[in-house]
């Protein structure tokens, strides 16, 4: 029998998730169908329930429903609780499990595809909204020397740093706290700079062998251009992270981790 999965969001037509999961299923010969489901802004819960009633096994959740998905879940994994958001729902006999695979997708992309170790590196994260919160725990678990979170609203960064302090060396401040210092890795996690806007004007330098990574994706984002001006030799957008989070979701559902290489090749990322 064909197993049913889907991604739910609004908008959803642009989603690459059906393509990714269909490619993963082919690797294992799994018989599954993966749809893209558009939910009205006020109909997330009903839409999920209808999917479960139709036999759905699992769902990826994208904007704007990741917080609602965390509320809907009966149980949360540690990383979903730390993220305060859920991008992966699993429907089982014990109820709904909420997980978050975004951070693992990011760390995997940085370490495996880009071949860049995070161990003992100085990391700057720009932004303290949902996207930043989603990645911080897996980032700290990769054992960097330090993580500094800076944000336009400094209090939000401070709250995140306090919530994550148990997991590793993390500090926070306003955008100015980046202070013109040099970082090995700079991660852009604000929503500024999408749709032709500008990335926040943060003063940082990127080490010669450093990496600048935009969680958003697009051929050449404003942050990627800014980071090159600040000395970054290696810059990346978030497409590889998208593939990585999808692979980890697949593992959560099916117990096997897909090989991301062929998919990255198809997307011209390797
Ligand atoms: P997301 O889920 O995409 O992270 P969010 O939770 O609304 O969305 O967070 C948006 C992030 O982008 C925040 O860090 C926000 O800064 P504030 O906390 O100060 O609002 C940041 N952001 C959005 N527009 C910005 C801008 N023009 N300049 C600097 N930061 C901006």
Largest sheet entry: 6 strands, mixed
The number of helical runs is 10
Number of separate structural domains: 2
**Which quaternary structure do these chains form?**
single chain
Low-pLDDT sequence parts: none
Total strand segments = 12
Spatial strand sequence of the major β-sheet: 2-1-3-5-6-4
Query: What's the Cα radius of gyration?
Result: 18 Å
User: Which ligands, by name, code or SMILES, are bound?
Assistant: 2'-monophosphoadenosine-5'-diphosphate
Helix content: 25-40%
CATH class category name of the largest domain: Alpha Beta
N-to-C series of helices and strands: EHEHEHEHEEHEHEHEEEHEHH
Bulk shape: globular
Strand content: 25-35%
Write out the CATH superfamily name of the largest domain.
NAD(P)-binding Rossmann-like Domain
CATH architecture of the largest domain: 3-Layer(aba) Sandwich
**Average pLDDT over all residues:** 96
According to CATH, the fold-level topology of the largest domain is Rossmann fold
Distance between the termini: 35 Å
Helix vs. strand class: alpha/beta
């Amino acid at each position: 029998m064909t197993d049913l999965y889907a991604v739910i969001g609004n908008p959803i037509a642009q989603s690459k998730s059906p393509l990714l999961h269909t490619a993963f299923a082919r690797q294992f010969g799994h018989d599954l169908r993966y749809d893209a489901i558009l939910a009205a802004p006020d109909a997330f819960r009903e839409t999920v329930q209808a999917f479960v009633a139709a036999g759905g096994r699992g769902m990826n959740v994208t904007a704007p429903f990741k917080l609602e998905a965390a509320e809907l879940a009966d149980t949360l994994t540690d990383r979903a609780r730390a993220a305060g958001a859920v991008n992966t729902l699993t429907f089982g006999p014990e109820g709904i499990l909420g997980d978050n695979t975004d951070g693992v997708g990011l760390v995997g992309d940085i370490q495996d595809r880009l071949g860049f170790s995070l161990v003992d590196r100085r990391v700057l994260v720009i932004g303290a909204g949902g996207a930043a919160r989603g990645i911080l725990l897996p980032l700290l678990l990769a054992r960097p020397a330090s993580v500094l979170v800076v944000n336009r609203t400094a209090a939000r960064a401070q709250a995140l740093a306090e919530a994550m302090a148990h997991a590793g060396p993390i500090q926070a401040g306003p955008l100015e706290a980046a202070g013109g210092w040099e970082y090995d890795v700079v991660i852009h996690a604000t929503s500024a700079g999408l749709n032709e806007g500008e990335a926040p004007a943060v003063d940082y330098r990127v080490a010669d062998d450093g990496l600048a990574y935009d969680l958003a994706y697009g051929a050449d984002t404003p942050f990627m251009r800014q980071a090159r001006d600040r000395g970054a030799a290696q810059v990346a957008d978030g497409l590889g992270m998208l593939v990585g989070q999808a692979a980890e979701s697949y593992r959560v559902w099916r117990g096997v981790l897909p090989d991301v290489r062929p998919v990255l090749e198809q997307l011209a990322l390797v």
